[in-house]
Specification:
Elements: E1 2-3, E2 7-9, E3 31-32, H1 34-38, E4 47-51, H2 57-67, E5 72-76, H3 91-100, E6 104-106, E7 109-114, E8 118-123, E9 129-133, E10 136-140, E11 143-145, H4 148-158, E12 169-170, H5 180-193
Parallel strand pairs: 1-12, 3-10, 4-5, 4-10, 5-6
Antiparallel strand pairs: 2-11, 7-8, 8-9
Length: 214
Amino acid sequence: VAIAAGATWRADGFGRSCLKPLETLAPVERLFTPDDIMAGRLPEGPCVIYDDDHYYMACVIADRLRAADLPVTFVTSEDRVAAWGANTAEQSQSQKRLIELEVGIVTAHTLAGFDGRAVDLACAYSERPRRVAAEALVLVTARRPNDTLYRDLQARVEADAQGAPKSLKRIGDCEAPAIIAAAVFAGHRYARELDADVDVDVPLRLDRVFAVGD
């Protein structure tokens, strides 16, 4: 059995620049994630998108909200929009698109809190506070694996329960949320290694070290 149940975007502020959930985010009904936006649950007023993911997702969400004629301020903890997109030649186009959509852009600021009226930020370098008026906050920070089914089945395997699968593995975002290409690779790799004489728990050796004499 292979579990590929995906992952869900977090709504608690946990991400690259904040390694624990924030307790200063309220009210809950005014907090949104990419999952909410894609499902059609949209804010009703001016909103801040906080991007701690640094790739394409926050830009896509900004585009969707502007299509709904909502005022948007894009905040990122990085020094530029979609910073990781520089590795895929997408960064400049992403930032250009936001400018064309008249999205406000605030770089190098981390999330500190939200009270339903404004978002509290802190400069990533000086920690100087900044407050941006907003009625909603969209969090594009990190994803949590949907691994409940995997853990339930794993408990049955460990207990040697009747009907438990002979082999069990979680793959893709269910194991570690990443980009789409990584999820596709995980599926192909699982299929290729199924029933093969390969220890899938041992990472492949990409580099080998040789001692060089004088």
